Every structure is written in structure tokens, then in C-alpha cells.
Amino acid sequence: MKSDVIIIGGGLMGFSTALQLAMRGLRCTVLEKESPGRHASGINAGGLRQLNRNPAEIPLTVEAAKMWRSIEALVDSDCDVRFPGQLRVAESADDLDLLEQRAAMVRSLGYEHEEMIGREELYQLAPALAPHCLGALICREDGYARPFHALTAFRHKACSLGVEYRVNTVVDAVERERGMWRITTRKGEFQAPVLVNCAGAWAGHIAASLGEPVPLKPGAPMIMVTERLPHFVDPVIGAAGRKLSFKQMQNGTLLIGGAHMASLDFHKEQSEIKWPKLAVSARSVMALFPQLKDVRIVRTWAGIEAFTPDNLPVICKSSTAEDAYHAFGFSAHGFQLSPLIGRIVAELIVDGISSFPIEPFDITRFKSS
Amino acid sequence: MKDHYQLVIIGAGPAGLAAATVAADHGVEVALLDEQPAPGGQIFRAIEAAPVERAEKLGPEYRRGEKLVSAFRNSSVGYFPDTRVWSLSARREIGVINQQQARMITADQVLIANGAFERPVPFPGWTLPGVMNAGAGQILFKGSGIVPSDGIVLAGSGPLLLLLAWQYLRAGVKVKAVLDTISRVNYIKALPKLPSALLVHHHITQGLRYQQTLKLAGVELHNGIRDLQAHGNESLESISYRHKGSKQTLKTDSLMIHFGVIPNIHLSQAAGCDHFWHKRQQCWRPELDKWGGSSIDGILIAGDGGGIGGARTAEHAGRIAAFRILHNLGILNQRESKIEAAQDRKWMKADLRIRPFLEKLFRIPDSMLRVPHDNAIVCRCEEVTAGKIRSAIAAGHSDSNQVKFFTRCGMGPCQGQQCSQAVAHIVADKTNTPLQQSAQFRIRPPLKPLTLGELASIYPEERE
Ligand SMILES: Cc1cc2nc3c(=O)[nH]c(=O)nc-3n(C[C@H](O)[C@H](O)[C@H](O)COP(=O)(O)OP(=O)(O)OC[C@H]3O[C@@H](n4cnc5c(N)ncnc54)[C@H](O)[C@@H]3O)c2cc1C
Ligand SMILES: Cc1cc2nc3c(=O)[nH]c(=O)nc-3n(C[C@H](O)[C@H](O)[C@H](O)COP(=O)(O)OP(=O)(O)OC[C@H]3O[C@@H](n4cnc5c(N)ncnc54)[C@H](O)[C@@H]3O)c2cc1C
Fold first, then answer.
1. Which CATH number does the domain A5-64+147-216+309-366 belong to among 2.160.20.80, 3.40.430.10, 3.50.50.60, 3.40.640.10?
2. pLDDT digits (tens, 9 = 90+) for B280-324
3. Residue of B89, B442, B455 with shortest CB distance to A297
4. CB contact under 8 A, B405 and A37
5. Residue A275 and residue B87: Cβ atoms within 8 Å?
6. Which of B455, B457, B463 to mutate to test the interface with A (most CBs of A within 10 A)?
7. Which CATH number fits domain A86-140+221-302: 3.40.50.2000, 3.30.9.10, 3.90.180.10, 3.40.50.261?
8. What are phi and psi of B280, to 5 degrees?
């Protein structure tokens, strides 16, 4: 089978890229070592958050948010999206200061998606919140979707436009030969003129084999989910002074994340829940919602994600190899960006340049250090 | 409860009781944890409380447990009833909860002796009120002497089905019918292969002879039934099945089902032990060496949790594991533990002789395990039907975990324990892959109910 582009990694970045390339008439094959969405893309917290992003990501996150608003037009499924807004609450005067500075900074960059709200509005939006909070930073357009459904929708749409994918296909080596990439997998060899590295936490191996090693670190953020409860809170809740992201999902369950990490044996791809850290998450939840004390935790898990030293992704053309591209290292906040990442990589491949400011995400930024 | 023990045993059934007693008698500091209020496990449930009369109705085997429990009561074992184990790690960290107090304890050696549970076999209507697992019925009987109302139907396969029918009969309940999925041909083929001495004396094969008693009492007995379905609007009103090619209907408001038991592998899976598909027992089992040692150092498994062998085998396996643990702790040398275990090995071997016969006889038809009816609910917690699972597979979700992600099947409070087997069968069937290659649901602790408040109370010194 002939492809114009081979994409390593059947996560959201891989399928989003494949979809955008297919929309521009290219034939793509996605190679996935396990199954689509097996790692970060299928099991993440589904948060569509623009709030509190690194300034370098703001232009991207704002555009991605627009894409999520009309996601059905792109992938024929609404991915179960909701946009109830996201709050970052202040529990002290110091918190309040910090959030106000943040809001001012975002405004100074010319963006208006983050703003401060006072105590009164906070309790209108989240009446169930414990009474000690003083105000919050809010992004009213934020929300969430169901990640595995989103991944499946991207995959179906991509395949309907001719994209092919292979499961259980581990890419072992990539070599450039006479203007072609020769890709060796445990399920045979593949060839294409263009290669895209969307291999998530494993992308460092591919980058290194292209001669541009990156200090990528795998990590395994943990999540817990509770039993279903009657609807009691709309917005996604975080707090300035806590590692916490808290939301009530479409079906009434509470999804509690907060970037606490499980212990991870990356080689075996086995993670183990760190209960002391989840206990901290549980205490954070109870500080903000003491009435949830007797709610049952139904599941906990951790997913493997790629972290860079600056927590910003790598999105660029290879600095060492011809016709090779990277999109990885999303450091636990790539879900929201994913529809746009495919567009950017497709622009790089087809137009040779992206219409978005992606300089901060160049792979060469790690060289000096 | 202390923070650390030399040995923690999970489960106070025959395996756990026997192991705990041996270890404690050798001076080991043992904690025995069980979620039940009293020792005895599944088979000897409430044995200390059951009046003599009820114990007699339950049969002579029940008496065997009395000896086991009294030896244990006379030992120095630290016993913690009403204590749920909600997590177990490869590093032998054990999450427990006792009187609403969650805590983490550790152990040099862990023995999993958590037993078996009834094989869930979904069929249309099995979730209707009025349909109950025979095991649950037996628990009510053993624990509180509660029996069902007259006109009950029992259906399924396995020794417990006949035993329970017989126990009910003796307790004066009118049993309407016993519907067995085993065809008569199985009996005729299997029986002559069995050493007759075993047939006469073994408590399980007695079940076969219970048939005679049941017949005499006027109970309808049908073998080789197929296509069992339960009907009713709010609750059970009738059941239907095929027998000798024709469809039969029975009016009843109470159906007890039983399809044998399978090992409870949630804890061993959570710890990361290796497992394999056991064809004859039609279930997953942990990989164990001949001492009950799992693939993880310091974690051993004894009793039905390691593979179905019955109560006597569980007791022997518990002691054998204990002798290995004594060696691992440096209390016995290799030779000594070998010698100590020899007698139990001999008895266990004898007790296990009947297993291949039972496994053959009570084998569940594969066609049932594949849940042929699309309208049958497979996941009770999230109400996912077999049809929905099949369409997820058709849409490219080609293993159990993808099916789970897509349909939420297995994401409920039971942790997928009720549906993981059925999903694996459906996936293997639809994708044409052998069961032994199919992935199982990944374990997502807590394995037992744990509240946010309980979790919040542990590790109080830990900060962000
Ligand atoms: C627990 C958790 C919660 C999160 N919550 C959020 C959130 O709320 N909001 C948000 O925006 N983001 C969130 N994220 C981050 C987000 O999920 C990721 O940034 C995003 O999914 C990354 O997508 P990806 O395609 O790069 O990676 P992945 O989904 O990991 O895909 C990479 C794929 O490449 C495959 N692969 C790797 N090496 C090879 C090889 N050699 N050959 C073949 N295939 C290979 C892997 O099997 C994998 O499927 C979370 C992440 C985690 C782990
Ligand atoms: C429903 C049912 C009915 C049965 N009826 C009969 C019968 O009538 N006659 C017969 O011969 N055999 C019967 N058996 C089989 C018999 O019970 C077993 O062969 C025997 O009990 C096995 O002993 P064991 O020690 O391995 O486990 P069990 O006796 O099952 O003991 C396991 C113990 O572990 C505890 N446990 C499990 N998980 C946890 C946890 N996470 N935390 C804390 N405690 C835990 C349980 O509460 C239980 O007390 C039955 C089995 C089942 C499942």
C-alpha cells in the first residue's frame, strides 16, 4: 500500500494530523503500537481548558476552543462536549492577588477569555462550593468532552476520508533512503516520503533516532472517578492554591484530577497508584465540597503522558532530517489542543509554514541546555 | 491494627484459616483480614453462630469447618473481621478499611485467600428482581436461615445447584423445578470414568444422588436445557427455555441461578501477578508454583482464588503455602518445609482427583458464555447489552478495554467483576481470537467501596 505520509502514534495527535492531511488530499497511514487511544488520548480527563495556559500556548488554545465549539462539523460527532466554564478559585487574599495578576497579564496580551469574578458571582455559578472562597478566575467558554469518544470520532472521520491505520504495529526503526522513509515495524516494513512523529511519551525514541534527542520525561498523572450523584455543580473547578481539577460529568460521576503522579515503570508500561497523593486530592475536594465526604470512589487510574522540561509541546519540522515532523510532549494538557495540532502539522507539510506562532515549540530549544 | 506484619492473609475461609493457624503456631505475627463479620469463608459462613439443627441440614461437610475454626480461635492470629481490602500492590502495600477507618499496612509476605465467586452468565432477564444467584440464596440460608417461598425454580449447572435444591427440600421449601444445562449424555459418559469409591464418598458427587431425592419429592428435573430466559415487567413472572428442541414456559416469581464458581482474581490482578486462561475450568487463574507462589515475590495465593479446587483442597493449599511462607521468613529451611507440607500434598492430590471429572461434567456450554442474545444485559452497573458490545467491536474496538472505554461496560461499582468474563468471550468470538490471547479489563482500584472521606483520612502528613 502506498502512502504519502506515515504517522507514528494512534493517539489524538496522530489521528487529528491524519484527518487534516486527508482533508487536503494526502494519503496517510497511522501506525499504532497497541490500539487507538490506548494511552493518554483515550484515558485523559477530557478537560477543554484555556484557563491559565502558558502565554506561548494562548493563540493555539483560543483557536482550538473555536474548533471544539463546532467539532461536529469536523468529525461528525459532538464528542459529548459541554461548555459550562472553568473556575480557578481563590481561597485567600494571596490567591486573589495571584489570579488578578494573571487576568491582567492575559488582558495585556490582547485576550479576553480569562477574567476575574467576585464572591457573589462565584456562588451564583457554584452554589455548592464551601463558603470560604473569595473570588475566582474564570474562562466562561471552557468545558470538557469524552476523550475516547473524541478519539473514536477523529478516527472514524479520518478513515472515511481514506486514512488507514494499523494496530499492534510497533515502529522499531526509521531510516531515510533515496527520498523515502523506510519504517521497520514488527508487522513488516512501510514506506512513505513523509514521516510524522506523534508517538506521545515514546516520541523521544523517534526524535533521538533522527539525531535530535529531547529531554522528554514520561509521567503518569492520576485520576479518580466517583459514583453517580444528582447534578450539583456546572463549571469545572480548580483552585489557585491546590493541584486540583474537579468536574461533574454528563452522567453524574465526579472526575477528580490534579496532576498528581502515579509511580511509573515506563519500560513495562505499568503504573501504580500513589495513594498518599490521591489522599491529598481527596482532602482538596473536601476542603471545597465538604458535603462529598461519603461519596464512593469507583475507579482510579493513571495514564502515560510525555512531559517536556518547560511543559510546552514540540510542534515543528525536524531540524535534522528531511520531510520529518514532530507533534508531542503535550505535558498533560494536549487534549484541548488536539484538533488544531493536526491543522498545524498539515500546514507545515503541505504549505511549508504554519499560520500560527509555533516558534516556542521548536525542537531546537532544548539544544543549548 | 499495626502498620506492618510479617504475614497478612486476605480471606478467612478454609485456606486462610488453615494458613493463619500454621503460621501463628510457628511464632509468626499474622494479621488475618476478612470482610465478613465471622470466620469461615464462603463454605463455613456463620459456622460459629449457626444452630446445630441448621448445621445438620447443611450436611456433614459443614461440620469439618468447626474444627478448623476452633483451632484458629485457639491460635495467636490477629483477626480483623469486617475489614475490606481495597488495594494491593506488588510491594505488598495493602489498603484496608475497618470501621470506616481507611489505612495502609505492609507485610513481608502476603497470602491471598479470597476464594471464588459465582460465574456470572448473562441471559435475557437475568437482572430482573426475583432472579437471584444460588450462592446469595445459600448465604441467606446459612447466615440467617432464610429460605425462598414455595414454587422456586433453580437453573444452571454445577454441584451447588443440586446441593441447594436438596438443602431447600430438607428445609421444607417446595421446589418447582431444577433446570440443568448439562445434558444427560454428559452424566452417562462421565460417570463410568470415575473411581466408584470417590463417587460414593465425595460430598460433591453426592449432589448427583440428590437428584434421586428431588425426583421422589416431585420436583421437575430437566437436563440439557438451552436458551434460558427470564420474563417479567417490573419483576420476574415466568421463565422460558428449550428442552429437547421445544420451547417450554414456567410461571414463577423466583429463580435461582448458578453456573459454577470462578476464582476471584481482582486482588492478584491489582498486584500485577501473571494470569492465564484455564480451558478446563473456563476461567482465568493466577500462575502459581506448587507452593502457591505467584509471579511476584512475597505474594502467595491459596484456595479457590488460585483455581477452583473446593474447600478441602483450599485448606491443604493454605497449609502448604504457610510452610513456604515459613521458609521465606527464615523460620523453616527448605527441607523442613518440604517435609511439613508432605501430608497436605498427599491429601490435596487425592482430593483433586475428582476435579477433571467435575470440570467435564459441569462444563458450561460455550454458546451460553458468548451471550448470544443481543438484548441480554452484560454489565449490570452501566446497563450495557451484548448487542451494544457487539456493535462496539464491529466499529473497530477490538479488545475488552476498548469496548469498556467506548460502552462504559465494566466501569461501575462492581469493577467489572460481573461482566469481564462475558465481554472477553464476546470479543474472542467476534474477533476470532483465542480467549487465552484476549486482554482482560485493566484493574482500576479501589477494589472495594472507599469514600472520599475515608481516602482523605489516610497519610495526613502528606502535602501537595
Ligand atoms: C491522566 C491524564 C489526564 C489528562 N487530562 C487532560 C485534560 O483534562 N485536558 C487536556 O487538554 N489534556 C489532558 N491530558 C493530556 C492529553 O491526554 C495528551 O496531551 C494527549 O492525549 C496527547 O496525545 P498524543 O496523541 O500525543 O499521545 P498518546 O495518546 O499517548 O498517543 C501516542 C500513541 O503513540 C503510540 N506509539 C508510541 N510509540 C510508538 C511506536 N514506536 N510505534 C507505534 N506506535 C507508537 C502509543 O501507543 C500511543 O497510542 C491528560 C493526560 C493524562 C495522562
Ligand atoms: C457462592 C458460593 C457457594 C458455595 N457453596 C458451596 C457449598 O455449598 N459446598 C461446597 O462444598 N462448596 C461450596 N462453594 C465452594 C467453597 O466455598 C470453596 O471451595 C471454599 O470456600 C474455598 O475456600 P477459600 O478459603 O479458598 O475461600 P472462601 O471460603 O471463599 O473464603 C474467602 C474469604 O475471603 C474474603 N474476602 C474476599 N475478598 C476480600 C477482600 N477484598 N477483603 C476482605 N476479605 C475478602 C471473603 O469474605 C471470604 O470470607 C461455594 C462457593 C461459592 C462462591
1. 3.50.50.60
2. 999 999 999 999 999 999 999 999 999 999 999 999 999 999 999
3. B455
4. yes
5. yes
6. B455
7. 3.30.9.10
8. -70, -40
The pick from B42, B157, B166, B283 for probing ligand 2's pocket by mutation, whose C-beta has the most ligand atoms within 8 angstroms, reads B42
For A26-56, the pLDDT digits (tens) are 999 999 999 999 999 999 999 999 999 999 9
Tell me what pLDDT residue B31 has. Answer: 98
pLDDT tens-digit series, residues A304-347: 999 999 999 999 999 999 999 999 999 999 999 999 999 999 99
How many angstroms separate the CA atoms of B252 and B236, rounded?
7
Residues B126 and B107 in one domain: no
- State the closest ligand 2 atom to the C-alpha of B43, by its place in the atom list counted from 1: 17
B316 lies in the same domain as B272: yes
Q: Cβ(B43) to ligand 2 under 6 A?
A: yes
Q: Do B453 and A293 count as a contact with CB atoms less than 8 A apart?
A: yes
Asked if the C-beta of A300 comes within 8 angstroms of chain B's C-beta atoms, the answer is yes
Question: Which of A69, A67, A55 minimizes the C-alpha distance to A16?
Answer: A67
Least confident range from A108-117, B209-218, B408-417: namely B209-218
State the Cα–Cα distance between residues B260 and A62, nearest whole angstrom.
57
CA distance A25 to A4: 10
User: Cell 475536594 maps to which residue?
Assistant: A285
Residues in chain A closer than 8 A to B402 (CB atoms): 35-38
User: Which one-letter amino acid corresponds to residue B48?
Assistant: E
pTM, two decimals, is 0.93
Domain segments of chain A as ranges: 5-64+147-216+309-366, 86-140+221-302
Residue B51 C-alpha cell reads as: 444452630
Residue B70 placed within a domain: yes
